[in-house]
Amino acid sequence: MATLLTMIVVDPDDPAFARPTKFVGPVYHKDAADALAAKKGWAFRQDGSAWRRVVPSPEPRRIVEIQPISWLLERGAVVICAGGGGIPTMLPSGPGALVGVEAVIDKDLASELLAEDVNADLLVMATDVDGVYLDWGSPNKRRLGRVTPEELVGYEFAAGSMGPKVEAAARFVAKTGGRAAIGSLADIAGIVAGTTGTNVIKHDAPAEAVLGSLAT
């Protein structure tokens, strides 16, 4: 087993840099937040009754350590990487090394990029619910069992919770033709087998391919 700190390159022109949205750090009273904003140029948003700093969430573009990750996988290692979305970095405008960025990369989109790069057959996103629901929080809520990326486009999901997972799943299936699954960590065996959770598949994928695949 290997744990690898993972740097992920983002685009300095990503529009997310103009719209910081991810909460980071402690909470502040309004006057303290205003003082830090003036002193350090930080952006703040209200979080409940307090204020917290927000940073951009740019799209992941390239995993710097993808070669050692692939090398380890090819030799049978279990690799823990891209944790928390990875360490945001970017290339400066001129020649030079990578520089760090004060940002947060979405962990689900980073996982999707990783799954693409290692040619995974299956992208599993384990969470604390048993799948993706429509009308969540209402008496009419219903879980999606087997769905295509095209079908998902017509639905809306919360940006701060299920939205990124759905986007990552749809992106992986559309780009690779593989299967993506979202469900409860307690049902991980069933999710891998394709018998539980929400399974996102290509439109023309046969049911036996979904239910019988144990590849990861």
Structural features, described:
This protein starts with a strand and ends with a helix. Strand 11 and strand 12 (142-144) form a beta hairpin. The relative contact order is 0.14. The protein has seven helices and 15 strands. It is globular and about 55 Å long. The protein is an alpha/beta fold and 216 residues long.
Count the DSSP helices: 7
Unreliable sequence segments:
207-216
Sequence of secondary-structure elements: EEEHEEEHEEEHEEEEHHEHEH
- Which quaternary structure do these chains form? single chain
Cα distance spanning the termini: 16 Å
Question: Which structural category do the helix and sheet elements fall into?
Answer: alpha/beta
Radius of gyration: 19 Å
- Tally of strands: 15
Q: How does the overall form come out from the CA principal axes?
A: globular
| Average pLDDT | 89
Main pleated-sheet profile: 4 strands, mixed
Strand order, sheet with most strands: 6-2-8-9
Strand content: 25-35%
The residue fraction in helices comes out at: 25-40%
Keywords:
globular, 15 strands, alpha/beta, single chain
Q: Which SSEs are present, and which pair or pack?
A:
Layout: E1 2-4, E2 7-9, E3 22-28, H1 30-40, E4 43-47, E5 50-55, E6 62-63, H2 66-74, E7 79-81, E8 87-90, E9 99-100, H3 107-117, E10 122-127, E11 132-134, E12 142-144, E13 146-147, H4 149-153, H5 162-176, E14 179-184, H6 188-193, E15 198-200, H7 207-212
Parallel strand pairs: 1-7, 2-8, 10-14, 13-15
Antiparallel strand pairs: 2-6, 3-5, 4-5, 8-9, 11-12, 14-15
